[in-house]
From TrEMBL:
UniProt domain Calcineurin-like phosphoesterase: residue ranges: 41-244
Protein name as it appears in the record: Calcineurin-like phosphoesterase domain-containing protein
GO MF entries: hydrolase activity
Parts forming coiled coils: none
Assigned keywords, A-Z: Signal
Length: 329
């Protein structure tokens, strides 16, 4: 009798173990919680300084731009932003080359703003004008206008650009000048989506924010731009122009509720030092600016439902320097 029961008992035990293995309680203990996926992700960079003359050191801008785009491509961004100074001379040939590099290496849409260097062809060609520069920039990058907006997966993107250079250069230097029409458009566009996470891109920084902006290189209409921006509860503002390294503590500040980030430079970031160094430039506040041609930097942004994460990417060695988390309240 006992011998007959043994096969039956063994079968029951095996069946119980099989059922336990398939039970929801057992399987849930073994499964890891899926990692939270961000909404859109994107790279944002500036001061690429591509030129059409393929000779050192000018070639560095083109090579570093291509390398930065390929580096960020590993993280599958939804798009890329180049926030001004895509070129050094602003020539049609340089703009065309910058566009070709973006098309060849980004693998995703690339949105651009105009920088002060995009106007520099006026120093080379006496027939060139601010209108020539703006028209060439719009046509090269297929822009609807010099300032425009985009929506990507619930995130609002606002692109601003300086509108004058040679006409006002003696009065404002390398600062950004925006027309009343652009300011009115910015205000209306920003107010159209008060609850959306919003990113603003302007090449030159605003006074008193990042990049040591009291040196006549910021936005002329800073006061009005800051007033408009401070009305939005979920605003992040990116600027370039100064080349001050994104790793410097000065390159992220919060002012009037707006988070301002400097972008360093893809071409040549600048470190800050209180001590002189070979080739360093001394600022009016006694701080020395040390250019590092071997460096190349940008930011990478991840937008989640409850927060924004801004990371600093060091393209020269493919590492992350730091990240900042901004809660979405």
């Amino acid at each position: 009798m006992k011998k007959r029961l043994f096969p039956l008992t063994f079968a029951i035990v095996i069946s119980l173990l099989f059922c336990l293995a398939l039970s929801p309680a057992h399987s849930s203990e073994r499964e890891d919680t899926p990692a939270e996926k961000p909404l859109p992700t994107f790279g944002v960079m500036s001061d690429v300084h591509v030129v059409s003359r393929w000779e050192p050191p000018h070639v560095d801008g083109a090579l570093k731009f291509a390398h930065a785009l390929r580096d960020l491509r590993h993280f599958h961004p939804d798009f890329e932003v180049v926030n001004g100074d895509l070129t050094t001379t602003g020539s049609p040939q340089a703009m065309s080359l910058a566009r070709q590099i973006a098309d060849d290496h980004a693998g995703t849409p690339v949105y651009v703003t105009m920088g002060n260097h995009e106007y520099y062809q006026t120093w080379i060609d006496p027939k060139w004008s601010d209108e020539s520069a703006k028209d060439a920039f719009r046509r090269t990058f297929d822009l609807p206008g010099l300032y425009y907006e985009k929506w990507v997966r619930g995130v609002h993107l606002i692109f601003l650009s300086p509108e004058q250079y040679s006409v006002k250069q003696k009065q404002i230097g390398e600062a950004a000048w925006l027309s009343d029409a652009q300011l009115a458009w910015f205000k209306k566009t920003l107010r159209s989506a008060p609850d959306a996470p919003t990113f603003v891109f302007l090449h030159q920084p605003l006074d008193g924010t990042v990049g040591k902006t009291d040196l006549g290189v910021s936005a002329v209409q800073t006061r009005e731009l800051l007033r408009i921006a401070s009305l939005h509860p979920r605003l992040v503002w990116f600027s370039g122009h100064s080349h001050v390294s994104a790793r410097e503590k000065t390159e992220h500040i919060v002012k009037n509720g707006v988070h301002f980030f400097g972008l360093g430079s893809v071409y040549e970031p600048v470190a800050l030092s209180t001590k002189p160094a070979p080739g360093a430039q001394k600022r009016g506040d006694g701080v020395y600016m040390v250019a590092h041609g071997e460096w190349s930097e940008s930011r990478f942004v991840e937008v989640y439902r409850d927060r924004i994460v801004v990371k600093t990417r060091l393209h020269q060695d493919g590492t992350w320097a730091e990240h900042v988390e901004i809660p979405l309240r």
